[in-house]
Amino acid sequence: MKFSSASLAIATLLFSGCASPPIHFYTLGAPAVPGVAPSLSATTHVMAVTRITLPDYLDTQDIVVRDGDQIDRSPNGRWASRLSQGATDLLAARLAQSWPSVFVTTQPQSGTPDNRLSVNVSRLDITHDGQGTLEADWAIIPRDEHLPIKHQRAVFTTHGNVSTDTGNAALTRNLLEQLASRIAQTTTP
């Protein structure tokens, strides 16, 4: 069977039109913490940040917006990791900046940390109109069982442009940074 060059060109154009747009991956922007890391010694205070818990429908790589009861997934934007992992990394990085003399870590340690930070996000909604809301509670759990567990709860809001996945990522980061700031202000490690 012989094909003319015009037939091949048309077939190529038809097949290239079927290609989907490329997937773009986003992070919450938790680069290595700048500055001097605390020198670790036997007396360095250690704060272990456990993985943040999120509602199941959010703890994916999907970037989503909410429209009432409907959740719309981005067709070509994804988180680089599960949202809970990216949020935990961002929170730990910001707390390390706020508490420079404390060793803040998300990694398992050979010994028991002085405190553990446990965060539960019960709501993290970004709507089509750009309204962002985060509701969270957290607990500081001391190594010493005789000391009380410190509980806190807060709601954060922000507004921005979510017409792109970049805007959605920025709004999500803003809400999580508000949470990190509140934890740093209300907690003595």
Automatic annotation (TrEMBL):
Signal peptide limits: 1-21
Keyword list, A-Z: Signal
Pfam family, one: ABC_trans_aux
Record flagged with keyword Signal: yes
Record bears the keyword Signal: yes
Residue span, ABC-type transport auxiliary lipoprotein component domain: 26-184
Record-given protein name: ABC-type transport auxiliary lipoprotein component domain-containing protein
Species in which this protein is naturally found: Gluconobacter wancherniae NBRC 103581
